[in-house]
Amino acid sequence: MADCTERQNMTSLEQKLHNIAEIISQSSSINGSGIPARYRLNPRTDLHDKSEPYRQKTFGERNDNNKPHKTILLVGETGTGKTTLINTMINYMLGVKREDKVWFEITDEHQSEQMSDMLSVQSQTSSITIYGFYLPESPIDLTIIDTPGYGDTRDIDNDKEISIGLLSLSRSDNSIHEIDAVCLVIKSSVNRLSDRQVYIFDAVQSLFGKDIAENIVLLFTHSDGMRPKNALTAVKVAKIKCAINDKNQPVFFLFNNCQSVPADEEYNEDDEKTQEQSWDRSFKGMANFFKFVENIKPKTLLMTRDVLQQRNQLEAKIFNLRSRVQEVEQKQNELKQTKEALEKNKEYVKDKKNFEYEVKVQYKDRVDIDPKRWRLTKKATCCTVCEENCHYPGCWWAKDLSWCSMMKDDHCTVCTNKCHYSKHVKEAKIYESKTKTEKRTYEDLKKKYNVKIGDSVSMATKMEEKLQKLETEKVKLVIEAFHCVETLELIALNTDSLFTLQHIDVLIEKLKEINEPEKAKTMENIKKRAGEEKHGALGYIKCLISKK
Q: Which UniProt keywords apply (predicted)?
């Protein structure tokens, strides 16, 4: 019996060694003489449609429909060790042990830095990478959605592009329709949150609908094995919503980031012991993590898609609101100048005589977009009927304008007349409101308002009606933006997001102007609820924006 068991163990070991040798034969050596020897898995297919804000890399083929399939999304700050964590996940799935003295990688350790450099010089690129992992050696099929690091101080737009990429992914025909786990990757050494870190945690939380909270877990990297008390306190201060265990504590897993030693470094007993501890800690954390994933119910991306779309629409509506309110006020000023001219020349009006006067008028001009303004997109979605900028920066990934996140039921949710998407264009130009001084005559004015000679009362009435119509339009714009925030309050995981707070002051001011004190109070309560930490982070965002 013992001999039989030993033969079975030998057979199992031989099979494992054969599997590892097979994987190595299909990989590229990174550092074959290091400890362990490092190899990069080569994707069987590398799909990269430049019209999409994500790229796909597939390892193996998904043939076994009975094999469990899990989808994991990883997000975190630049420098947290997210890439190393992904590679640890892959080695765990392959059953690699420390004594095998091999280490497989699916991405470059410095991919985040390379991606940042690449993004800074390319007009279009992918901001999300999807790894499909379908190797027979793995007990499950695995999809990893990897986002670039948050909080790159060189460009805040990178973080917006992550949300654009996720929105595109949730709306595409891609096979990803649900998420098993959202992993927030955090350094275990984090203790006191800086404004930048508050912003990063807030930005990550702002991606999701509230239904996904129980699928969010914390992955602490660079761990010494001890409970990360300070980091957990920082998470609490940041009001991060995540899965809770039976002790009402956040669900978290610990990992170290030291599984290999470069070949050009001397390797001694201390290194071996450190590496052993690191390996054991990370693989124990990975075992616990996948046990959690196995038992949690996956969530669809539907509510998250709605949150991302509402945030995009809110930003576009606020941008459009500011320009349109400015236009409305300029038109109001133009009419007031006209009324003043009539009053000043009332004797000419009374005697039915013509006279000339000057007025500052507003007009629209199509201008080129500053090529330095936005990194990924140099185009805006504009309505040719309303002559308005409906989405700037626009959805550069949208193959058809009906896919623009501003469209609903094939009509724009932003422009004045809610025009059909076919009335819109996506070009490297935007509308700008400008003013100029024009000379006008009383005769021109009578023709414009279609009144009889000397009928100044009728003219004044029509001008008042025009002013009222413009004021009604302004009110409608403000209420639409308010309803965007209301919707986010209902469906968003992060209800007082910094992305919303950026626009709160504008909304409060305009709501008061249109005599909506209760709605203004609602906005003020959101602002108050956010707390001092978020208002400090809001200053951080404004500082980054001012550098652009």
A: Coiled coil, Nucleotide-binding
